[in-house]
Design a protein that fits this description.
By secondary structure, this protein is mainly alpha-helical. The chain folds into 2 domains: 107 residues, no CATH class; 170 residues, no CATH class. Helix content is 68%, strand content 3%. The protein is built from 12 helices and 3 strands. Strands 1-3-2 form a 3-stranded mixed β-sheet, covered by helices on one side. A hairpin with a 6-residue loop joins β2 and β3. The chain starts with a helix and ends with a helix. The model has no long low-confidence stretch (mean pLDDT 90).
Length: 292
């Protein structure tokens, strides 16, 4: 009986792998709305389960998978070569299947796949710079009452997370969000990561060592990934859109500051002379938030 069940398991894993591989490498447009419906149901179910505890299940899963991987390495000499290769192959297939069906298909079927790329010119960049420069200076003065002070806050990580989640709760079909402080914050700080989504548990994980001013946009960026925006540019867009729509001035300032940073980065290449003139109009405290 045990052998029969094991064979059935192997057959199911291989069949699902073949199906998944086909869908990944052969765009099937009709599958897109089906997957989006399945994803929404799966996300809402999984989020209810992970929110039962404050534990970071995604990071714990990474540790478990790492343990299993080293276990395979240690068992290499104790298993027949055929059995070892079969188990290792099945392990990889299970991870592959889990990744794509849990979240990864969002890469193949982006939400805005039919949306054309917006063309813009140097004049558009300058106009957008003026808009966000004024907005950022405005929010900065409302918070600090001084052009020279940097923006600081007494808001906790959980309070910022809650305010960021409220936007997506109000404006999407996704109602439960799990945002964690990453257990690997020290490691990912060295690697230059500010956050990541676990594609299996669908939890957002944020590097709590980043400056507090970046927390709202980082949290919102990862939440955008949670609801299916796989593209980094799309996630950045919704991070800015959601934060500048917030009622809290600190959250608004964080989003406006990020938008300003992106535009400054663009203008450094397209019109650095104009940018140098405009930088003098930015509050000193804002510049310190950007460059320090």
């Amino acid at each position: 009986m045990h052998k029969v069940l094991r064979r059935l398991f192997v057959i199911k894993v291989i069949f699902l792998f073949i199906l998944t591989f086909f869908l990944v490498n052969n765009y099937v447009g009709e599958f897109n709305p089906i997957y989006r419906t399945l994803y929404e149901l799966w996300y809402n179910l999984l989020s209810k389960l992970t929110k039962i505890s404050s534990l970071n299940f995604g990071d714990l899963l990474y540790l478990i998978l790492l343990f299993i991987f080293f276990y395979f390495l240690l068992k290499r000499n104790k298993l027949r070569r055929r059995d070892y290769i079969l188990r290792l192959t099945l392990f990889v297939m299970v991870i592959y299947n889990s990744f794509y069906w849990s979240w990864g298909f969002n890469y193949q079927y982006p939400i805005n796949s039919k949306q054309t790329t917006l063309d813009y010119n140097n004049s558009d960049l300058k106009e957008t710079l003026d808009y966000y420069l004024k907005k950022t200076n405005q929010y900065h003065l409302q918070i600090t009452k001084s052009k020279n002070k940097t923006v600081k806050t007494d808001l906790t990580f959980n309070e910022i997370s809650e305010m960021c989640m409220n936007y997506f709760t109000r404006n999407t079909q996704f109602k439960d969000f799990k945002v964690n402080k990453s257990y690997f914050s020290e490691i990912i700080s060295y690697l230059g990561f500010t956050g990541y989504i676990n594609p299996i548990t669908l939890e957002s994980n944020v590097n709590y060592n980043i400056p507090v001013i970046s927390l709202p946009t980082t949290i919102s960026h990862e939440i955008a990934h949670q609801i299916g925006y796989s593209s980094e540019s799309e996630a950045n867009y919704y991070a800015i859109k959601s934060t500048i729509s917030n009622k809290n001035n600190f959250i608004k300032y964080s989003g406006s500051l990020l938008a300003l940073q992106y535009i400054i980065s663009e203008l450094q290449y397209s019109d650095s002379d104009y940018l140098k003139l405009k930088l003098s109009e930015i509050n000193k405290g804002v510049l310190e938030n950007i460059f320090h």
